[in-house]
Amino acid sequence: MEEIRDVFGNLISEIGGKDSRIVVLDADLGTSTRASKFSKIPGRFIQCGIAEQNMVGVSAGLALKGFIPFAVSFAVFIAGRCYDQIRVSIAYPNLNVKLIGSHAGLTPGPDGPTHQAIDDIALMRALPNMMVLEPADRREMAMVIEESIKLEGPVYIRMNRGSSPDIYDNKPAFRKINILREGKDVALIASGFMVHKAIKAAKLLELENISALIASVHCIKPIDTETLLDIAKKVKFIVTIENHSIVGGLGSVISEVLSEIYQIPILKIGIKDTFAESAETDDLFKKYGLTEMDIVKKVIENINMTQFS
Amino acid sequence: MLSKEEKIFLEEKAKKVRKLIIEMLYYAGSGHPGGSLSIVEILLYLYYKEIDIDLKDPRSTDRSMLILSKGHGCPALYAVLSELGIIDREVLKTYKKLDSILQGHPDRNKTLGVDMSTGSLGQGLSVAAGCALADKIKGKSHKTYVILGDGEIQEGQIWEAAIFAANNNLDNLCAFIDYNKLQLTSKVEDVFGKCNLLSVWADLGWQCFEIDGHDFEEIDMAVKFKSEKPKVIIAHTIKGKGVSFMENKIEWHSKKISEKEFEKAMLELR
Ligand SMILES: Cc1ncc(C[n+]2csc(CCOP(=O)(O)OP(=O)(O)O)c2C)c(N)n1
User: How large is the C-alpha radius of gyration of chain A?
Assistant: First the structure.
């Protein structure tokens, strides 16, 4: 199974081979992020060394001159370490830089909390002008790369390590919340890696006669409010599912938006405002409550909740 | 070499620009006089001799550019841009006021002629390196200039960028260090130690110059010098240059100018 970081590495090299505006910047993690794939393109692969803040600034300069830079590192080192550089040198001047944060959420597993970006969405979406994307499978990843090249302006793309099984049979729609399956009891709204777990949970819920709608949110900012409202009107409650802290991530986005326009309970599955620890990713997902069984349990515990209780 | 006429022209401009800076700061009721007055000659030289802004398309980046990394010195930049006819003289009075195109720190999108938004110290050298690298990849012969504060270079990112620029052979990049020896609360030496800037930059692979940053001929010589490495020009300057009571005074880093002080300063700058 091709990981989404492989999709990134292969696709950006393919596009970059033809489109001379594309440059890729690495900070000594290219073999892990797959940015190194681009190194076969002469002159447009820029090795910045272990100096992410400079990499972000150099990207800004390249964008000023008309290039489309992809600055790539682990999500923690892009969004966290370079927050002020992104804020002042990219978001504020609204420059056409694409930031790729790899190994998102708990997916760096054994490397531990220093490497697990549980707060990158919260940080990046707080920045004006910044678009925040989290693809769930190879089709979403390909779409997100292709579309972000067409789009003028800063984009943060978050990608996980590990396999991301296909969730689509056909092409997803860009910027839209894509409904993968209709349902009338509960809406499972997930992003990235967690969409696949939502699909598994929905199948288990079916056995309990619970009908779950599944939606994939690859575009966390700006959020597709229209589809969100449609979804809310179809179900009794919503469960958001993310590989990120419940502080400031997808669950927060959905709550913030719906609280102004529609009354519906929203429950959040995500990392509960804590640092995790070193372990295999699957074990971490179990310990920190991010498995399909956690989703099922949350739904069953709350299924009798009425809209206004 | 600068001709005698050019030198006189630039020196006259420098007086004018200092007056505009003091006016701007007086009207605004706040701002950074010290670090604005110290970079007047550097900015004037660059904008009159090196950077050819197309008045019809100031936003074009297909030219030599300047990044004022020590963004708090922007009154000097605004004054020079107004002398070039890019910013309306009257607009200078709106600096820092609601709805103004002139922000407290440079804003590339709000102010035509400003090449990059800055204000958080330490970021401009990286951006300049990116511009210089872009011109290299495209085979353009433009230059990228950047002005750094001598306090600003305490930021770690500066040294990331210094290593990057040297290793990428960015001989089209030229950094000025406004070496006025003062920062916000103290002397630079108090926090940076008595380090020899010249040898540090040289060791990293930069071509180094040490000049009087208020002398147009010395600026000209350093800028014109052909180099195969990125260039750093350590420009000895006086913080608050031109206004006697502001010169070399830490408190004039950022201070409201009273009516009396305004009158005194304008008299001195006549
Ligand atoms: C990252 C960051 N930290 C702190 C400040 C606040 N600040 C503004 S100017 C200044 C002193 C700058 O000293 P220097 O670079 O020597 O500039 P100059 O003395 O020429 O004004 C400080 C600390 C800032 N703008 N950015």
Answer: 19
Mean pLDDT value of segment A222-245: 98
**B156 Cα–ligand 1 center, Å:** 14
Instruction: Please give the structure tokens belonging to residue A164.
Output: 């991301």
pLDDT computed for residue A169 by the predictor? 85
Of B115, B127, B164, the CB nearest to A89: B127
Hey, what CATH class is A4-158 in?
A: alpha beta
What is the CATH class of A178-301?
Answer: alpha beta
Domain ranges across chain B: 4-269
CATH 3.40.50.920 location in chain A: 178-301
We find that the CATH architecture of domain B4-269 is 3-Layer(aba) Sandwich (3.40)
According to DSSP, the β-strands at A177-181 and A212-217 are antiparallel
- Which residues' Cβ are closer than 6 Å to ligand 1? B 32, 34-35, 38, 70, 72, 119-122, 149-152, 178, 180, 182-184, 239, 253
pLDDT at A281 over 80: yes
The CA distances from residue B14 to A85, B146, B218, in Å, are 33, 19, 15
Given a contact cutoff of 8 angstroms between Cβ atoms, the answer to whether B69 and B147 are in contact is yes
DSSP string over A206-232: HHTT--EEEEEESEEES--HHHHHHHH
Report pLDDT digits (tens) over B168-177: 999 999 999 9
Interface predicted TM-score of the whole assembly (ipTM), two decimals:
0.95
